[in-house]
Amino acid sequence: MSMIDKLTLVCAAALVLGACDAATEATALAAAAEAPAPEAEVSERGGDAWCDEFEAGEGGSTDCALRVDDERFVFLDYLTDEDGYASQVVLTQHSFAGELLATSAPIDVEPVYGVAGLRDLDGDGAVELLIPLFSGNVNTVFSVWHQDDTGLFAPVGELSSYGIDSFEARNGLVIAPSRGSAVTHYRAASRIGAGGLEAVYEIEIDYEHRTCQLTYSAGLAAAGLDAATLIADCEARDW
């Protein structure tokens, strides 16, 4: 029995009672796990888990699901190349009632640290989906998916940051910190607009010389921000 089958079957009875909570899922999934699964449905990478149950830095390129709310979940199915490495991922969106809501085209990925997650990036009360695409020595590039009016996720752009928990929501903006070198870091600010992610500004932080400078500022006026204030606040940090 696949992860998706387990999730939908687990909550079918609970939905009749008006709830599909974590305790119900845990109990039913434990029972479902005892049933033999067809070999073709068993993940070669030890998948079929909740993405947010992995420890930090674990579970990269592993099939897993994320619970959006009491009615919906998403599932990430990683596809491997001939050498057994994950090369693409397909995102499917489901209701706990068993309905397939949407399926993405395959998304190209490379080796990554960590797994996908749900975070409210801009502080509007609705979570975004972050899918890691590839990781360098420090930073990971994420595909950002935003919920539309129907609650379905659609891609709006990409952001680079230290990790999934390093993003900050600040006055409706998404702040993404990243590192360029041992002494140079960045803070990139974006907003999620009708056309997707829109860059607002980026600050380069030089820890060697204890200075900050704007490397991009085209969106400051529209966001009601002032360059001098941003630089002053940045350089007032505890170096």
Describe this structure as you would to a colleague.
This protein is mainly beta. It folds into two domains: 3-165, Periplasmic lysozyme inhibitor of I-type lysozyme (Lipocalin), CATH 2.40.128.460; 180-239, no CATH class. Helices cover 15% and strands 40% of the residues. It has three helices and 15 strands. It has helices spanning 3-16, 22-33, 227-235; strands at residues 49-50, 64-67, 72-80, 86-95, 100-103, 107-108, 117-119, 128-135, 140-147, 153-161, 168-170, 173-179, 184-193, 196-206, 211-216. The strands form three sheets. Strands 1, 2, 3, 4, 5 and 6 form a six-stranded mixed β-sheet that branches. A five-stranded antiparallel β-sheet has the order 11-12-13-14-15, with helices on one face. The protein has a four-stranded antiparallel β-sheet with strand order 7-8-9-10, with no helix packed on it. β4 and β5 form a beta hairpin. The radius of gyration is 20 Å and the shape is globular. Residues 12-17 and 31-47 have low confidence and may be disordered.
